[in-house]
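Design request, tokens follow.
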């Protein structure tokens, strides 16, 4: 039903390096969170970052929540 494309780890790491994390401006948002690969990369780079992700596929969202816990 839903096609999944997981962001490759090198791409997620590169994007995390480009993100300007500033907790005073709010969370880092991933509107297509999938299994949390991008949010995990941001969390590794900025451990204090507030992260927020949305995922339409409940099964994949469950994997993402578990991976980021």
């Amino acid at each position: 039903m839903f096609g999944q494309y997981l962001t490759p780890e090198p791409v997620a790491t590169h994007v995390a390096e480009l993100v300007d994390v500033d907790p005073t401006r709010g969370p880092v948002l991933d509107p297509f969170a999938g299994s949390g690969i991008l949010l995990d990369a941001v969390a590794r780079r900025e451990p204090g970052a507030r992260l927020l992700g949305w995922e339409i596929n409940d099964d994949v969202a469950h994997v993402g929540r578990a991976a980021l816990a």
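Comment from the thread starter after seeing the answer: thanks! The radius of gyration is 12 Å.
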